[in-house]
Amino acid sequence: MAFRRLFPSRSLFVTSLLFFICIIVLFSLFNGVSFIFFKSKLEEEIIASNRMLLQHSAERYANHFSRLQTLLYSKYKEIDVQSFNRQIRLFGEMGTDYLAAKKISSQLRTEANDPLFYLESLILHFGGNAFAIDQEGSSSAEDMLGRAYQSPIYTYTYWKNQLLTDNTLTLLPAVRYNRSVELPHGSTLMPFVYKTPGSQYQIIAMLDMEKTQQALFGDAHSRAFAITSKDGLLLYSSDTELDAGSIPTFGEGESHLLINGQYWFRTSDSSGLHYFTRVPSQAIASQLSEWNFTAAVVLALTLIVGVAASILFSKRLVMPVKQLVDAFSNRRPDKQPSPIEEYAFIDRNIKELLKEREDIQAKMAKQRTLLTNFGYMSQLKNINEDIVELEQLLSMNESYTVVLYELRFRGSMLSVLNLRPETATLAIREHIRHIAQEHCPSSHTFQMEKNYILTVIKNSRGVEIEGMLEKMKGMLDQCKHYCLATIAVSARFEHPSQLGYAYEQVQMLSRQAKLLDETQLIQEARELPDPPRLSLLQEQELMTAIQGGQGDAAFMLIDSILDDMYAAGAAALKYEAFSSLVFEKVADSLGAMQLDASQSWAIKPLHYKLAACCTLSDYKEVLSRLVEAAAVLMIENRADTFDPIAARVMEIIEKQFAEELSLDYLAHTLNMSSAYLSAYIKEKTGTNFSEHLNSLRVSKAKELLSGTTLNINDISRQVGYHNVTSFNRMFKKGTGLAPSEYRKQSVLDRKTG
Prior knowledge:
With 753 residues, the chain is an alpha+beta fold. It has 29 helices and 17 strands. It is flat, with a radius of gyration of 41 Å. Residues 1-5 and 366-387 have low confidence and may be disordered.
């Protein structure tokens, strides 16, 4: 009663306003209470949580270092390792048993690749003949420790001196190892060394600190992490700006400090290692909302109260809406109008609209056919036929079938016959109309856009349609010397409003036509093979052949792909896509030599001829002329623009591909900067240095795999890859097959050939 006196007008605006005011008040109270109650509590909890996190991380690191110590001791004391060391000391390099080295490498591989150890490598370093073994194989100690695992701090000289120390177990500072064959992406590694005093060999565990931190400390971007020895030596830091000098001094019993807006936390483990983490104060503040469990409870209670209030107000609002829906759907004019003014007004207008709708529906019923056809009239907008026949088609009520004829004219034959495509299309359409009406008198034939002819057959039996299609195919086969046709037949449809769907269906079927030199009849969809593509190695071979002026070699590759497509039953449209791809690659090859394909009198006409190809022989002829013309242009251009620097680079790559060849080495040899030489090679050859080198190495590896019985490790080293993993990755990238799979396929090809 009090609300009625305050708000005499019970409008929708007033009712909604009261509802939202209640919700706003409830949420305002919640925010105020939460801020006051939790402001002073959560910061202490978050600091304690960070301190506990560091303690747990320190325990995990201590346990992990203990496990690694056990691993190093067990591997160091293995009988095979000790026996191998004695052989080296007694017999020297000439008496080294490399089969035993291979066995030790295999034994190291299990632990080195164990994801729970987070190791990059396990290395046994023997001082007797400067020999080293890791999980990937063996080599000279200088090659493995000075090149494969190269570091400005841990040089090969450092590791030789390490053998002379009396240290037993040494945890060395982590450093960033540069990229190498074994470490293509670079890694931050911490060496963990074990040896017995006076011994001539040591075992080194390269601990990947980035993986270790993510597993044992967590992936926390806002927190820096560091480890120091008991003497204060910085062993690892996740932040390059965090060094031993920037770590503050903690007092006795202090576990955290606040310095310059940074929270520092410290803890130690049983072995004397110290662990530090640094958290910005704003990161602490940002966690207040995440750990506010009590606030969540208060929020839940507030939401419950808010939902209850919402239900109460919603019921009052829904009641008149339900009355309006009833009035609209059930036509109950006797319902009591809503007490809310706006709803009462809407109710009155709905009744008037319902009456108007009844009048309109009565008028529409008389013109139902025209309105029904309005949605798909646009599908036949390009038909230029007698309007009476068109109206008969649109007013039909029988079932019907749609037949689409797609014509592909051979331009060369039309020019010989002195025929224009429009004239030929008109003649073929009249033949189609005559045959269709002969077998199905109720059919209608129209010429659609471009080279499409459409026949709509009303209420005909299957035997009549089959007879018509058989005769139609015979007639079109007689014209195949200047026109190839595809006949696509739709399913049976029941209503003229489905004519648009029927037309889309026959278009889809027509696009599945194969590249045949005859009329094709398609009545159902088929599964199409994958679209054609060039692998990376095939692209390189194609561009190399064209740039080398070898048109025959380039076409052999294209011819093989075309034959594979034809054997797989590829659709005619896929040949257009493939020819466009080949033209694009040819243009790229010419562009690398500053030749413009779009302006070349020998290349430009062939682009138009590709669009007019109708058969496999057409595509082969035009593509053969295309690559041959491109190769001739390359030869002519090379005669005018021979480049001695590019030729020298190619000569060095050809002769030294099996060595540790790098762009820096080439630049030093040619007295050029590496950046300039890289851009120069790309400009002159169209391909960068690494692609040339890897392509040649993969090509040589293919010859060894198919022509020799060498194992894959030996082949990897012979072609310049000192890490078999890198070799496997590059070989599969270039050929699509692993080396072992390629060798099996080569053997199978020789047997079947």
